[in-house]
Structures are given as C-alpha cells and as structure tokens.
Design goal:
With about 260 residues, this protein is α/β, with parallel strands linked by helices. It contains twelve helices and eight strands. An eight-stranded parallel barrel has the order 1-2-3-4-5-6-7-8, surrounded by five helices. Bound molecules: phosphoenolpyruvate.
Length: about 260
C-alpha cells in the first residue's frame, strides 16, 4: 500500500541551535495538532550535522521520521568530507533524498552515480526519496515526458522489484523549486500519472499502485490541499515552507 508522506528538505539552512529550535517547535505544534501516526508519515531532512540532535526532538508517536539529504555511494573509506548511508542509518535515518536537482546541477550527479547511491542506500536499509524533474526549457520544448521517462529508466529502473518497493519518487519540476512558481495541480497530476504508468511498464501494475509519488516545487500552506487532492499525488517534498513550523504543520494537515 502506498503511503501518504510529507518530507521537509531543510537544505543548507540554519545553524545547529537554530535547527534544534525548529525541530522542537515542529514537535510542539505536532503535539498540539494531535497528528495521527502515518496519516501522513512525515520525514524531516536537516543538514547532516543536525541529524543526531534533531532525532532527539522527533515526535515519533506522531509518525515523524528522519532522513538525510544525500549519501555517498561507498560504505566507508578515504572519501574526505563524505557521509555514507550506513552512517545515516546509525543516527536514526530511515530515508535519504537522492537525485535532488540541486545536487544534479551543482555537484554534477549523473544517473549512473545516482544508480550507485541508490544501491548503497538500499543496502544500508534506507528508503530513497528519488527526485526527477524537468527544466523550464525542457517543458517549453514539450519534452517533459521523454525527459522524465529517461531519468526513471536510467536512474531507477535498474532496481530489482524488492529494491524498488522501498523507493519513494519525488516529481520536482526544476522551474518550480524555490521560485514561488508552483506547478498547477493538473500539471502535477499529469506527470505523476505518467510516472505511475512507466512503473507499471518497468515492473507491474501492483508496483505502480503501491509507489508513493511526491510533488515538490514551491508547495506551501496555501496550495498543498489542492495539490494533494490529485489522485496520483501522495504528498510533498517541501523546501522553503519546511522551515516555517506553522506552515509545515498546515501542509501535513492538508490531506
Ligand atoms: C525542494 O528543494 O525539494 C523544494 C521543493 O523546494 P521549495 O519547496 O522551496 O520549492
């Protein structure tokens, strides 16, 4: 069964004390809102150094989980400055974001590298939140489906059925990330339905129905309800609004 899910991507924001304060405030508001476990599931993805501290504030009884924003493809070794999937697991992470467009763009992460990272994450017992999404040029050239189809087949569909079972997909049109320009709910639904159809082709209809597919790109407290009302939108990967505790709780309550 697919899971309703809201993930907060804090990106490279907040000092450690600020991060702890945010987690604490989210926990207090979650308690006040009497959030029910796993309705939806919530994943906080702070910067690496915040993870252990944020874990102490996680309202686990309300269905909150911890995730990394990236991991290295190797498990350990001489890779200065890197963090492995096993390390993330050891501080309590259950999820890891992979293939975010900012990492594809600024860190030159390719589908081939992401395929290795996916394997490493899965081997460590993490659930990858695998991001796909087109640029504005691609959308305007009417090549969105071709582009997303390629990201899925090159980056993701090499996984076995059992491995793929663990994956959450996030559709994040690059032109909507951090721009304040959200995809319409119809645009999001159209691509989500396409992704589900591609999963059915690569695996089977059951896998397609069971895969959680999130929308990301300037989702906020005002537009989340409309986006989440779409039949193939199972939740959101939230950037900017995840740093605003009251807005983030409203988004969680938007199903
Ligand atoms: C993101 O970074 O994954 C994201 C969706 O950011 P924002 O919500 O700020 O557009």
């Amino acid at each position: 069964m697919r899971q309703k899910l809201v993930a907060g991507n804090w990106k490279m924001n907040l000092s450690y004390p600020e991060g702890l304060a945010l987690a604490h405030e989210i926990a207090i508001l979650a308690g006040a809102a009497q959030l029910t476990p796993d309705q939806p599931r919530v994943v906080l993805c702070p910067p690496f150094i915040h993870l252990f501290g944020v874990a102490q504030h996680l309202p686990k009884a309300a269905g909150f989980y911890l995730g990394g924003q990236n991991c290295h493809q190797k498990d350990s070794g001489a890779y200065t400055g890197e963090v492995s999937a096993t390390m993330l697991r050891s501080v309590g992470c259950e999820y890891v974001i992979l293939g975010h467009s900012e990492r594809r763009q600024y860190c030159h992460e390719t589908d081939d590298l992401l395929a290795q990272k996916l394997k490493a994450a899965l081997a460590a017992g993490l659930k990858p939140i695998f991001c796909v999404g087109e640029t504005l040029e691609t959308r305007e050239a009417d090549e969105t489906f071709e582009f997303i189809g390629r990201q899925l087949s090159d980056g993701l569909f090499h996984l076995s059925n059992e491995e793929f079972d663990q994956v959450v997909i996030a559709y994040e049109p690059i032109w909507a990330i951090g721009t304040g320009r959200t995809a319409t709910s119809a645009q999001a639904q159209e691509v989500h339905a396409f992704i589900r159809e591609r999963i059915a082709r690569a695996y089977d209809a059951e896998a397609a129905q069971d895969t959680t597919i999130l929308y990301g790109g300037s989702a906020n407290a005002q537009n989340a309800r409309e986006l989440f009302s779409q039949p193939d939108v199972d939740g959101g990967l939230i950037g900017g609004a995840a740093l605003k505790p009251a807005d983030f709780i409203t988004i969680i309550q938007s199903f």
